[in-house]
User: Fold these one by one.
Assistant:
Number 1:
Amino acid sequence: MSDGNGILGGGVFFERRRSAATSNRRKWVKTREKWLVVLGIVLHAVYMLSIFDIYFKTPIVHGMDPVFPRFSAPAKRLVFIVADGLRADKFFEPDSEGNFRAPFLRSVIKEQGRWGVSHARPPTESRPGHVAIIAGFYEDPSAVLKGWKANPVEFDSVFNRSRHTFSYGSPDIVPIFCGALPHSTWNTYPPEFEDFATDASFLDEWSFDQFQSLLHKSNEKKEMRHLLEQDNLVVFLHLLGCDSNGHAHRPFSSIYLNNVKVVDSIAERVYNLVQGYFEDSLTAYIFTADHGMSDKGSHGDAHPSNTDTPLVVWGAGVKTPRPSSSNHSHCGFRFVDNHLHDALTPTEWGLDGIERVDVNQADIAPLMSTLLGLPCPVNSVGALPLGYLDLSQAEEVEALLANTKQILNQFLQKSQIKQSHSLYFKPFKPLLHYSSILDRIEELIQTRDYQGAMKLSENLRDLALEGLHYFQTYDWMMLMTVVTLGYIGWMVYIVIHVLQSYASLPGNIATKEQNAHQGKSSMKVYLFGCFFMGVFSLLLLVDRSPPLYHAYIAMTVFLWTRILTEYEFVKALWRTLCMKRSNDIIKLLASCVLSILILEFLVNSFTERRLYTWCFLIAGAVAPFYLSLLFPGRLAIKAFVWGACWCLSIFTLMPSEIPDNTKLVVASGPLIILIGVAARWQGLHIEVNEYWYSILKLDYRPKFPMLLALQVFLVGLSSLMVFLSTTHRTEKQELPVLHQLINWSIAGSSMVLPLFSAPNLLVRLTSIFLGFAPSYLLLSIGYEAVFYATLALVLMAWILFENAILYLSKVNGSSTSEHEDRSLRLSDVRVPLTFMVLFNVAFFGTGNFASIASFEISSVYRFVTIFSPFFMAALLIFKLFIPFMLVICVFSSITKLIGLPQLGCYFLVILFSDVMTIHFFFLVRNTGSWMEIGNSISHFGIMSAQVCDTLDFKIIRLLCLKRSISPDKLLDQLWHGKYYLQTPFLLAPDDHENAECCSCKRVRIPSCGPGDLGSNPATPEHLLG
Ligand SMILES: [Zn+2]
Ligand SMILES: [Zn+2]
């Protein structure tokens, strides 16, 4: 096709001038697109890293001095027992016969100690739980990324402050705290012991036995005996039994419940052993758990069954039970797990009459330190629970003050580090005069006003905690603003690019735009940008910010500088917009709002796939209605659109874990054949008219008349093979090699067949649909096979809908003939938006993110019987890919059908995807179960990757287009073959020329040509559709 053959038409006079200008312009657009693609990939990669600087930063600082409490230690040693995975209700409640499972610890609660519920912060996992209890802070979840076993950062702990720590338990927990501790004696069982198949309570016995033999041995070893008689000792017994049994048998099982009894008996035996050995009643005891266990036998999230753990404290320095005054204060205080302070004690626990003191998990660390008279761990954020301590008022104040000073020290250290780095430092205002508050507290202690001192200390501690949070999120505002501005800049830049390259604009805009990119004024802007970047870099250097900060800011400044170079264009655009009728402006705004609504809908669909049901119910009602407004008659088409949409709406109501239903898979074979044959029959028997012509194009000569029959046969055969293979499996027989071979050859051969189909839209799409059906059927286990057929119907409905609109515009004479390409209009936005909805439903129609992770082996066994995870995963990914591919094919053919510039459409898809990326960026979270944290990151990651993928696709295209210029026929053929693979829409040979230039053909010279509306700038309707 010659250059002059576009929408511009044009007289002979302009021809020569224009072709020169066009080729220049084409080159320019191509270069810019390549460059945009690279920029886009770098930008998304860099911004993806930003979430680690924003959401996942370690709360730990170093260099604080420990604060020694100014009173004598109430206890000489501490015995500390953690029952891993013991949830509070299973511990406190009676069994069905009314017997309590932990008789010893209950007697402690009733007679000699204190109790409560310890609230864990999600992720409720073993490592964060133990770190919170023993070191007093909530570990940053990203510590996991840096390795579970080793300590990603050095932190202080109660064990660290002790004279000596004896520790026995799991190899996953004990070494975290004792591995690098010189003053510790510890031992762990080999990891093989944690075998889930057996009753794991013997692990608890193992820990107890170790401790018992230590005491026995010390009777012979003098040094050991001497050590044990010292003060500031900690004995830590980690009991893994409940966790292992909970995972393996769930917390309702008799094995788990029996393990609660084991744990209680160990507590009793330890108590008797220690009391007998030391005979001095100077031992304090703490019994708790790191997290609970959900009914399903897992832990991690914020459900109360996971966050609520028992806490029982008794012995030296601990208050004795006090009758409950039912003084649950309705102060609205929330624990770290967001549960309310005034949660009532269930009556079946039988502990109503005894005062309960709930704590945050990290509060246990200062409690342990205070009992031993040690300074709190320097990184602790725990608030000392005074309700447990049996101290005089003066001592209570001193203990609280030590706790307050330790948290204040952390705050001051963080504040100082930030201040020493910052040029412009914003201090945490409420604590500017902290020293005067401290002086006031000392004064009050001198005058023995302990109540007043207590109150002031508590206030100061709360402020210090707030201050810590303030510095933890100090850079958030800046980083989030920079990254968001960067994304917005990128989107604005894409909009400008699409407008300049794919929309037809009034002439005056284009002239200015051309001037701009020729670089007369842009030099100044670039200098300006460089200056800005230099200033920012300098500021960041002075602030000693991480190197990535430079990258975030560089990206953002760079993008906005580029946008500024288009200043003249934007200004002209704005002027044109201002001249428009308000009607057009409203249209533009309405389109924007509608687009954002649809994108927000897509964002929400990531967590709630049922939304698609509503979406397609509404689409099924609205689309036919809209069509009947446009052109009456043709009831069949409207009924088809309605039916297809409503059918598809059912699938997102079905379970995401696809239940086995072989009959359904077998039955989908004939269904798919029916759809394929019906489509072809339509092509041959429909009355030829304007409407059908564009999608049927009846003048083709089929090269292979038997192709359809062959494809139908293969689909039928695959249906049969599904039946045969499954029967074999249900009879517990090995799948014969012959079956596997047949399955492989059916799937392989049928995917090649679409290449031989006739080059018209309906025939080729039907052929692709039939070609991938056998592979999909053979990989299906249930309703997803029907989904494949239904999705195809909806895609067909989409084509019919777009064709109706095209037909109408032709009838009204507002459109050029079919093969001529036009520029983008505002109303064309519906095509990329529909594409995005369908692209997502192609995934969510049969599952969600969790359902990919759960590996369903039965869906691949028709191809492989030997277990090989990578190969099986590859097959599953291929299966996921098939519906996507159908959607992409239809999208490409629709852009072709209505003559839209395909690359322009892809840029719009990127633009819309980035609206979603921004939203997911703000939805990233750093608390919750690993699953929730992981999902929030992966949603953001998937969106970024989707954009990069689309961009990759464009790189390939741009490269291909370049190569195709070669006149060599053989190479051309080769390329043609490649092109089939790379762009799923299979172009007809006679359209080949067309395809070569599809990126450049849309480029116009808006300044000339009578067909262009630029000649009439007063009413540039093209711009606003
Ligand atoms: Zn655990
Ligand atoms: Zn566990």
Note: The first helix runs from residue 12 to 54.
Number 2:
Amino acid sequence: MKKTWTNKAYEYFEKETGRNVEEIQERGEKPGLWKRANLQLFKWKQQLFASGDNRWGNEVQGYADFEADSPIPDFGIFTANSTKEIRIRFFNLTKSQDGAADFRCAFLKFGDAEEAGPWDMAFMTGSASPFNDIETLEEFLTGLQVGPSSLKAWALRHPSNYYSLVDGLRKEPKEWTSLDYNNYKTYSCTTKENVMRLFRFRLIGLGNVDESKLSPDDQKHPWDLVRTGTEEKSTQGNFLSESLLRVSETHPTMMLQVQFRDIMSVSAPDNVVDPSVVWDEKECPWRNLASVILTYNVPNLPEERAKYSFHKLPEGVRLQTLSNTESYAELILYRDRALFSARGGKMTQESVSKKMTTYLIHVETGFYLFSGTNATVSIAIFGSKDRTKRHVLDKSFQNDFERGSKDAYYITAPTVGEVKFIKIYLVGGSIGREWYLRSVMIFDLESRISYDFPCFQWITSTITLPRGNAVLPQKETDPVLQRVRRMWLAHEQMVVRWKTQTCLPSNIDCSAYKDLPRDLKYATEREWEKKEIIGFYAIKLKIHRFLTALESFDDFEDFKALTDVLCQSEVAKAITANENWKRDEEFGRMTLDGINPVIIKRCQAPLDNFPVTNDMLQGILQRNLSLEQEMEAGHIYLLDYKVLKGVPRRNDRYLPTPLCMMYVRPDGALVPIAIQLGQSSEESNLIWTPHDDELDWLFAKTWVKTADIHVHALNTHYYRAHRVSEVFAVATFRNLPLAHPVFKLLVPHLKYTIAVNATALEVLLGGAGSVFYKMLAIGGHEVKMLENGYNEFHWDLLNIPKEFAMRGVDEPALLPNYHYRDDALSMWNCIGEFASKVVNLYYSSDTDVKKDHELQSWMREIKEKGLVSWNEDNGVPRSVESVSHLKEILTMIIFNVSCYHAAVNFGQGDYYIFGPNYPSAMRTPPPTKKGNTTMASFMAALPVKADQALAVAFANYLCSYSEDEVYLGEYPDAYFAEEAMRRVKDEFQQSLKRISELMKTRNRKIDVPYYYLLPERVPNSVAV
Ligand SMILES: [Fe+2]
């Protein structure tokens, strides 16, 4: 407990002087001309010099944890519930010895940098300021430094001098962090209610350490500042070493408090602003603003010490001055220079001897283009006992941190104990400053322990890296690492913000790709590669003059010529060979294994709006069953494009909203048996069947395909694969820190997703001139189409077995040759097993999952910010309930960003290359009569050469693999440091290999291979 203490200054003043305190109210005469000039000079000096470096005492670093509510606005600093790094320099005003009575001071900075912070504050012990006028200030400072006589004269000149001297002096304190300090200044801001709010700060020590205020005896002669000689400490020493020890071993806490009062007038009265007037605590109680934990001593070196400046105030804050700026009370507002200049004997940390060790540091630079840096790189190591200074990593006559390099450095430093985290600083190197740091490894030669620090990020300034072992937040017991974690998230939440959408999956709040944070952009070669691919097709198309050709194709062969120029893949060839694409069996195969394999669903009962009759299907159904019986038996399926309903079309393009009935023949082939090019059975919507004229039937199938391309491009692919994945990416970056196992697991699966989507928004969906606008019949109305799609979204769609069941396509016996389904389920199980093993390593019970507040916030954001329910609850869970629930969610995410996207992305070149098979848009209205289709009318409906060329070029571009593609199961970035995770990854890779072999064996037995889910062709993330 802090002792109860009484300031007996007035009593002793009266005894000493024989004067009555009550009678001495005024300070005396107003300052004369000379004093006024001195006062002005002092203020000027203040404004010029009250900033810089103070090398006395001890600087500590730590964190301020801000309270949930504060009586003053946050001014961009005191954000509710946030944590900020802070620096505090403690020092004695004049003495080097702690045994001597002295004023103790503290400079506070929000931030951990050499530069001045947004609001640096100076504090001193004592509730009232001893700086009362120029003369006495000088006397006071001299008295403090050289002898008691002048200080005594000063103290006896006025009772308030005596009072403030007694009040502020501390004698023999154990250390600095348990004392109370005041700022004395009155600041103001205007509240929302337009009231002027005045406020003051203080910084107080917590705990049970006595403040060492002057004893009643000492108060009788407070000008005697010398040691009494009774204390235990050596007269040579000071409490610096004790203070150092206390900070590093116990992480003391202090409290930053604020006191406020509202006034209605436009200016604050002098008796409120006057720094020697202490505000009544009953009227203006001190309120907690932030608890401050002090964690490390900063090495007392010029390059490590913070620079403090007391002129800078955040926007919205004013420093209140007295109406009479010639008043001596005004001095306190300009006091800070005195705190820089009035310093006593030398007091440095060098007096403290430390045990030394050597650290071997391995630094691995990335292999992407421009991964290297020319900036000066330094490192500081933070451990359980201490921290090192910043060591510049530099090898003489060598280029450090070149692309792909592994550099090693030795540094000799005080041993820091068990290493907890490191800070990497980048300074200078304006050109080539960015640095892709893969990882750092530190080996303590003394203890023979090594520590891994995965990074795998672009660094542009300073980064704090915790050790690579994954820890759940509730299991992180180290108070410093808890704060490192919070700070990481606070930074990410500032950089990665939601643009919350209600009718679409939300995305990152960023208007253009170029404005994305560096770390969310592509590596440079990807950017170049993409430009190269576009250039390649542009040249090819120019050579063949397709881009300038605005006329129609002559016939199917003419289309094929373009196909041959641009693509020669195995599947593309199989489609066009022998006019295969015209066959009903091929239509069926493409429905199951093509680019949009998720449309088909079982049709169990006749449809009122699609009145297909048994008569229409005479000779088509092959089991001697009626259509209803075939439906019941599970042989009838449906392609329904109703999602296109209500989406406006371009004036010069046509797009129906078709329904297509499919039939599984006894031989297992799936074939189309009836097509209606509208959602109602109105007269104009004829039902087409294979009984129709061959060209009519082919034309009808082509109209289904043009609908399919629209639904695929925007819904199956863009919104379902890309936009849903972006939700996971944004939520993961914002809610899970580097040390979280789920972050480490998911980040390789979210790489470049935000980048590719930002590009897509500009290139594909950027309005007139963008690719979709030019290509598609709904150009310019894509958002409406996406909204229609998202309106149907349900969380269970991401659970692949459930999704197959929901569509009624989960029984291989009923619907054979659905290789997408079979492969997807194999991959789902394999990913599920992998996710399950990872989860088991870190979560031992459902309670572990429930108590993981970072994971729960992540899920909550996915629900509330990312995949917002539109009309009805879309089933997205608000929380993760159990270990098995977490396993399911992780499997869903990894499957969707890898396998699902691969299945609907990498076939675009194969399928879209041949225009008649998949026309991007039609130029004439759908047929309303049978028997009218001719080759000329067919060609007139299909895209012109220029549009088709663009569609083909773009499809090829969209399904190209990158040079640096990382495939499923490959984790070149070792985010996990644990050996157990290496084993789990190896097992995952082995399983994928086995699946790959099975798929390849199967493919050898079928006419057209299904290879989009071959593990070696499935990238880890949605990146194109
Ligand atoms: Fe894609």
Note: The first helix runs from residue 9 to 17.
